[in-house]
Specification:
Distance between the termini: 62 Å
Shape: elongated
Number of helices: 0
Number of strands: 16
Structural class: mainly beta
Largest sheet: 7 strands, antiparallel
Mean pLDDT: 88
Length: 203
């Protein structure tokens, strides 16, 4: 069983029925004030709790998250099999904890760029990228730091461009000389758009 909940198993013989009630609990481990690490499903999902992050021992849980949006900011796409719920969601963390995802490369979209993958948190019905998130394509992992538990997943981060900044914005050159320009493409959040496609034109 991969998800928590209650299942009723029914057995019948002629008109006689017998039931068995199965309660599936989330994967849970006790973590003390000294910190620790939880590894779920052979390392597909890990949580690293540093020393001092908890003011007292707590039962930390991990389970798959159902019914989550498949799209995020811009045209960002959810990487299948990476949506998890961490609990308890009301747990107060004194320090950020690291959440680490290991994804299956075969689950990525054909045009996905592994270096563009980022951890996102679910706020209502919208995915929001975590500020401190980084991808390691060589190990097929994506990690981030967070100060709260909830639902998190890995998305191929493709936010829509909100502004394009070219530097220098004005200059003068002589005939036959060269000038190097730099461009920054930013999303509405102010974060850079990773690997943007930029088209140059002159008039």
């Amino acid at each position: 069983a991969l998800r928590s909940g209650v299942a009723v198993v029914e057995a019948r013989a002629d008109d006689v029925r017998g039931d068995f009630v199965l309660r599936v609990e989330p994967f849970t481990r006790e973590v003390g004030v000294e910190g620790g690490q939880l590894s779920y499903r052979d390392g597909l999902m890990s949580i690293v709790v540093p020393s001092g992050a908890l003011s007292e021992a707590a039962a930390v849980s991990i389970e798959e998250a159902d019914d989550v949006p498949e799209e995020g900011p811009g045209s960002s796409l959810l990487v299948p099999g990476t949506a998890y719920r961490f609990g308890p969601e009301d747990l107060e963390l004194e320090k950020p904890v690291e959440i680490r995802f290991r994804y299956q490369a075969s689950a990525l979209a054909p045009d996905a760029d592994p270096s563009r993958l980022r951890v996102h948190g679910l706020a209502g019905d919208a995915w929001l990228p975590l500020e401190h998130s980084e991808a390691s394509p060589e190990t097929s992992t994506v990690s981030a730091w967070t100060t709260s538990f909830g639902v998190y997943s890995v998305l191929d981060y493709r936010p829509a461009a909100a502004s394009v900044i070219v530097t220098p914005w004005e200059s003068a050159v002589g005939v036959g000389e060269r000038l190097q320009l730099h461009v920054a493409v930013l999303a509405a959040s102010g974060q850079p758009v990773i690997a943007p496609v930029v088209e140059w034109r002159s008039s």
